[in-house]
């Protein structure tokens, strides 16, 4: 039976690099932001490559949910993949989008300091509000899944992931009850067939990567006043989730 993992992240949280790590496992297939088109269709928001995104995916959230809860994609050897990793953006999960399809999934959360998220986000899309970075919705989803399962889902902090990729990935795999695979630490450069059609607008850096770029510094970027206000408003949500991050 396929293990279905839902990784709940905000934008610019190293979420695509984490997807690369899982896709590099021999036992795993991945899905890249499957609710993106449904989110754009429901909100009417103008995002980079909006028309291409809408054409590339189902526009009805119920169609997406049925796919994600349906038959697993084939992995190696033309059999169902052992692990199906689904990369989800929490802000895509609008309140009217149901979550009953997630029954039996193993959930995890990927977070990043709001100042880092905003500093990266505005390089791709200048217009940004607190809801766009997903932290409020991330907390709501965390609370829901913790209540449903009776345990707090594992939380990975992107800064800690960059400081100790192997250690954090090993602990994440343990928390998800799957074996750690050293191939998660490195991957080939370039675009993947599994990448969303929006990759040219958002994935330039990860396409040049071959692994997690280990960092040692911890200083947060300096933000202009309007972005700092958003970062300050987001901080309590980030800190709430950070309290549950997997041990370092």
UniProtKB/TrEMBL annotation:
Keywords: Amino-acid biosynthesis, Branched-chain amino acid biosynthesis, Hydrolase. One of its GO terms (molecular function) is hydrolase activity. It comes from Erythrobacter fulvus. Pfam families: Sulfotransfer_5. Belongs to the class-IV pyridoxal-phosphate-dependent aminotransferase family. This is HAD family hydrolase. PANTHER family: AMINO-ACID AMINOTRANSFERASE, AMINODEOXYCHORISMATE LYASE. InterPro entries: Class-IV_PLP-Dep_Aminotrnsfr, P-loop_NTPase.
């Amino acid at each position: 039976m396929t293990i279905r993992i839902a990784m709940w992240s905000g934008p610019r949280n190293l979420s695509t690099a984490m997807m690369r790590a899982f896709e590099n496992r021999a036992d795993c297939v991945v899905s890249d932001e499957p609710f993106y088109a449904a989110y754009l269709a429901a909100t009417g928001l103008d995002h980079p490559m909006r028309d291409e995104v809408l054409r590339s995916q189902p526009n009805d959230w119920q169609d997406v949910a049925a796919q994600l809860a349906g038959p697993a994609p084939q992995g190696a050897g033309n059999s169902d993949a052992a692990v199906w990793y689904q990369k989800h953006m929490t802000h895509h999960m609008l309140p009217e989008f149901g979550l009953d399809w997630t029954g039996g999934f193993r959930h995890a959360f990927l977070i990043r300091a709001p100042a880092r998220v905003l500093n990266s986000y505005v390089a791709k899309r200048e217009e940004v509000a607190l809801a766009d970075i997903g932290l409020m919705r991330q907390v709501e989803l965390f609370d829901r899944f913790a209540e449903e399962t009776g345990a707090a889902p594992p939380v990975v902090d992107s800064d800690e992931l960059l400081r100790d990729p192997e250690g954090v990935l090993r602990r994440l795999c343990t928390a998800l009850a799957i074996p750690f695979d050293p191939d998660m630490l490195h991957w080939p450069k370039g675009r993947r067939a599994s990448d969303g059609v929006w990759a040219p607008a958002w994935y330039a850096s990860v396409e040049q990567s071959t692994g997690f770029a280990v960092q040692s510094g911890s200083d947060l970027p300096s933000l202009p006043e309007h972005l700092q206000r958003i970062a300050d408003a987001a901080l309590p949500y980030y800190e709430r989730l950070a309290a549950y991050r997997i041990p370092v």
